[in-house]
Amino acid sequence: MLLSLVTLLLHVSPELEEGRAASSSLKYTAAIAALSKVTSSDAPSAEKAEAYGLLARAWLALGKPANAQAAFEGLLTEDPMAEEPAGAPKVKQAFLAAKRARFPPGTVQLVKRPSGGDALVLDLVNPWRLPVSVVAWEATTGEFVKKPVVLDGLRAVLALPAGSRTWVQAVDPSGKSLATFASAAEPVPGPPAPPAAAVATAPRPDAPVEVKTTPSSPSSPLPAVASAVEPGLSATRLTGFVLIGVGALAMIVGGIVAGLGFADYAKGNGFPFTVEDPFEAERLKTQGTTEQWAGGVTGGGGVLALISGIVLVVVASQSP
Question: Is the model more confident about 234 or about 16?
Fold first, then answer.
């Protein structure tokens, strides 16, 4: 069962499996045929990246460095932050040539990912692994204010307040801009701000609250007093009923535990069953004694809870 689950979770397309097997067997022509089907399909990005990497090695093995470079460029399209592959110098040379063609040295990009109306999600593409930080510029009513952005790996998630305008920069340690998303002239708008009338009529948190009271007539005070007293009586009565229920349950549990303790002690003491092993007999007697004590204490606590509950119910019923 576990093996089947692992196989399902690690399932890849049959063409990628075929390409892997052919590459391992040094059957590069067959590997290229199978892997090309993966790269031209709608397979997951991770599978296509692996297929491009295997495809590049197969082309190199057949003496086609230009084809290998094109395959590595496909790999970098799927995974811009792909590590330099291990292997012979020709493998690394083809990869670096593809990297320079796909991302010229110094390239940094901010790429938008699916985002909600109140958030902006950007991926930092930094294939040459330059020292980079991300800052956001945000404005609501006045000028733009600079705000640092904490990256989650290579992803930045920015909240967009209502009525705000935002644009983002990737900068080097000296503050030089390496990439931008949007701009001060064309920022990313946040959700619409609430209408001014709604803001004006909304109560401030620190505003005094007006409490209106209606003068009571001579006939109205009695119902008001009754409603004020009744919740306390109900709470007392409810507490009493809870104690009665808990007490009864504790008495039952205590009785059961004490009964089991008596049975264990009797068994260890030779009645109604004889235990020939003296050590086992002593253990049963000790266990039975402990259980009887525990049952007695639990049952005693139940009795006290039961009596207390009855008293509370009686007192609550007799109170005016």
Answer: 16
